[in-house]
Amino acid sequence: MTQLIEVRWLWRRIYTYAATLLNSAGVAGVVWRLHDPQALKWIALALVGANVVVATLYLAGATVTDWAKLAHAARSPAP
Predict the structure, then answer these.
(1) Cα 11 to Cα 48: distance, rounded to the nearest angstrom
(2) 54, 20 Cβ separation under 8 angstroms
(3) Sites in the chain below the pLDDT cut of 70
(4) What is the pLDDT of residue 52?
(5) CA pair distance 31, 25, nearest whole angstrom
(6) Cβ atoms < 10 Å from Cβ of 16
(7) What is the pLDDT of residue 41?
(8) What is the 3-state secondary structure (H, E, C) of the chain?
(9) Is the Cα dihedral 72, 73, 74, 77 positive or negative?
(10) What is the structure's pLDDT at 62?
(11) Phi/psi at 48 (5° precision)
């Protein structure tokens, strides 16, 4: 039986690392160029929050596929 691509973690790792790098680059750009502390605070916090969401999706991805398998097994008739 072959594993689904989503369960293998490779593409989730690639997506997560790329998104985290882009968000971190966004934080660095904001810190480097913005001089208004109030705006800097909210933009940087939003980008850090986006990293938290991406990391959570990365970790929860396998669980979601397992939930889908359980739901499918619960709907199918017993042998």
Answers:
(1) 22
(2) yes
(3) 1-9, 61-62, 78-79
(4) 86
(5) 10
(6) 19
(7) 84
(8) CCCCHHHHCHHHHHHHHHHHHHHHHHHHHHHHHCCCHHHHHHHHHHHHHHHHHHHHHHHHHHHHHHHHHHHHHHHCCCC
(9) positive
(10) 65
(11) -65, -40
